[in-house]
């Protein structure tokens, strides 16, 4: 019932390529066809190539951590590169080193757009359209960054298309080929290259900082309760007998799964999801919701409701173990309904494999130089991030 995200606003239209991306697009036939196509592409890639792509990035991350040789480092950038490489490999068959200028340009541009669009200057423009008639440096920068983003993505997609063989197992390959098959919706709206372009932006924005922030939170919480880390390691060691895990091993690794679920509960990295709009008069829990009301789902609130969770603010993965009293059915870190996170399956495989690989090979410890444990309160923005901290990744014997 609550389908539309709020994109009638002018700045939203600019950022979303005229409403042609999924996260900000309105609930139209065109939007549904677009989402269906991207969903099919992700589904196919989850079955065909995703596992291998993530394994490769997890092993690369392992090498990066080994190379630090137990020095105290902030791992946030390495996590961002690992998560981003999963998406860029799937989207245009490319992976980057963190020092690559191309990668830095892509991320600085996407991060600037998210930050500028979330700024109060831009909200003021949407609330008081007359302000658009006056010079506004923030708005001018937003326009410039959107143009830069579009030029970068276009170049990547053109490079990809100019390769002789377009691989249908890669997302973009599937999307491009899918355009021929699904081009027209029931009502005749056309899906074009612009939709592939905007889907790539959606996947890059939706799939990079979220996964990276989640990994960074997990290491921070593990420093606070080292025994959880020891329990996960012990489980990995005994169940897997030395080999690296596959996603299909998850049911045999309840301790690891409980850690992942507890982190998704405690720090849903998109704490307020994406604004939705009621497409018709409705009600929630007995409250009348008129058509067009914008609804902001408070996922963080739902995950900390004392009526549902005991000690909601405590880090207690064991609550999800048998007899622990909590059910994963009450979790909603990926939102819900028609706007459910498109990358939910991709994210779940990533969180599982990255965490398993990291905890199998490293013990994360507080550096002696750090006086105190990481601050767990977080920095609020579109993505909920942990404050910067340093950690030592000590290789397991
Ligand atoms: C820890 C990892 C992640 C979390 C917690 C997360 C969470 C979310 C949430 C809460 C939403 C909004 C849902 C709503 O409004 O009801 C969302 C939307 C979205 N996410 Fe994720 N996400 C994650 C990873 C990913 C990944 C890896 C991708 C891409 C492969 C992705 C792509 C998207 C897209 C495209 C949307 C917009 C969907 C729409 O508006 O229809 N996300 N995500």
Automatic annotation (TrEMBL):
Cofactor: heme b
Enzyme Commission number(s): 1.14.14.16
Presence of keyword Iron: yes
Family according to the record: Belongs to the cytochrome P450 family.
Subcellular location: Endoplasmic reticulum membrane
Record key words, sorted: Heme, Iron, Lipid-binding, Membrane, Metal-binding, Monooxygenase, Oxidoreductase, Steroid-binding, Steroidogenesis
Membrane topology note: Peripheral membrane protein
Main localisation: endoplasmic reticulum
Protein name: Steroid 21-hydroxylase
Pfam families, A to Z: p450 (PF00067)
PROSITE patterns the UniProt entry points to: CYTOCHROME_P450
InterPro entries hit by this protein: Cyt_P450, Cyt_P450_CS, Cyt_P450_E_grp-I, Cyt_P450_sf
Organism per entry: Ilyodon furcidens
